[in-house]
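Input record (one chain):
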Amino acid sequence: MIGNLNHVAIVVPDLAKATARYRDVLGAQVSQPENLPEHGVTTVFIELPNTKIELLHPFGDNSPIGRFLEKNPDGGMHHLCYEVDDIYDAKNALIAEGARVLGDGEPKIGAHGKPVLFLHPKDFSGTLIELEER
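The corresponding structure, as predicted from the sequence alone:
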């Protein structure tokens, strides 16, 4: 069902500082920050030869990432994102196997302009999983 690892998401308390570290210290290619108000985050993507790193920072007062930073003030890994061929087929197969889809269960448009879903971390060894349609 799952395909390539699309990205690893890391919550950061200072987006500009984290972006500069990846760009200036590690020599990585980084995107411009993008605000995603519907998800309550600002994102920056670090391009790697085989995947991406997504830096996440809170956007707005009700950001779920804000709560993550309250518990983890230095930031940390937030989720893994895997690609799937069809988000609805994947959703239905996962629900049939007992996995829990977060939110209202319907795909939302993610940072890459493609449908995404999040799966409950308790169903995947404590790791929040994002599925993104290819």
